[in-house]
Amino acid sequence: MINKILLEILYRFKLTFSKIKLKFGIKTGFVKSLMIAPYKGFGSREKVYLIGRVLKDRGIGLSEISDSRWKNFSKMYKRFMSWEIPNVKVKATINGDSWIAETDDEGYFEFFINPKQPLQNTTPWVSLELELIDQIVPNQGKVNTKARVIIPTKDVEYGIISDIDDTIVPTGATRIWEMLKTTFLGNAHRRIPFPGVAAFYQALEKGTDGKENNPLFYVSSSPWNLYDFLTEMMSVHGIPLGPLMLRDLGLSREQLIAGSHFDHKLSQVEKIFELVPDIPFILIGDSGQYDPEIYLQVIKDYPGRVKMIYIRHVSEKRKETVLHVKNKMKSLGVDMLLIEDTLKAAEDALSKGWIREDDIQDIINEKIQDGLNNS
């Protein structure tokens, strides 16, 4: 009871401080331009989910491979020292119809859109218009942007859900100092994926017909502050883009810092399963932070929806536990492959008829090139 009261006091103090800071920033002209930061959404032709944030325009821009550690740190500082705009209305428009959402205390807005007519998309990506309705700063002008949501087409074969840290890129997520150094002093060009990952994910996106219709989703315990950093990293290295489901690490009424890694990732994976119904999924993760246990729970909650699980072996300490989870999955009719090499997962996917043989050579070539670049 005392802890709950203390948490409420701390949270109210945080809100008061944020309001005073924002009011001061607007009055002094430090906050003079705003931005809508949409995060890629997803759903079906009948329901669309989109989340985003209204912030002071940080002017971060794209990185260069030659950027110094100080410049990288400066940009990362801006990402985390954000100015959130609470309690303002954002309008989303698609096919001439509009919906309104209001930002919360942290500047986040969330849309669950039920189009009046089912979307008739022939390609996976659909665009929405977003516009800030409220006037917040002097001479604000129009604040608007486009958002993209991925809607599986009739040609979809399966979806892919992947972790990021130590699954796509080595980050040392189980070694805090190594992870902090990589995050704050590096940039999108210097975050190098595991060899062959980009070509493998491209092959999964193309499936067997080569049409790039299979949607990819990324679920991570990284904070939303890193969203643009992660999407830039994927774009730079040729990893197919898709919705990123991250989390807010700040103080809230319910928690001092962040909820558990397990609960966050499980809830986000299951949100994808709920909003993207009727298609099976390949799940990809690593052995370091409970991905196998999370995916086991997904198998139990959504029987028949998981095609395969690929787990990158990064933790010798957890190997016995992971193999035990693998046996439980097997008893439920789902295979899990523990790999140290992306090519092994690709060869397995090829043997099951999920990717094209032509794409295997691309994965081999990329793996060789990545190995040369990292040597």
Automatic annotation (TrEMBL):
Phosphatidate phosphatase APP1 catalytic domain segment(s): 158-313
GO molecular function, a single term: phosphatidate phosphatase activity
Top-rank taxon: Bacteria
InterPro entries: APP1_cat, Mg2+_PAP
One Pfam family this sequence matches: APP1_cat
PANTHER family reported for this sequence: PHOSPHATIDATE PHOSPHATASE APP1
The protein, known as: Phosphatidate phosphatase APP1
Organism: Belliella pelovolcani
Classification lineage: Bacteria, Pseudomonadati, Bacteroidota, Cytophagia, Cytophagales
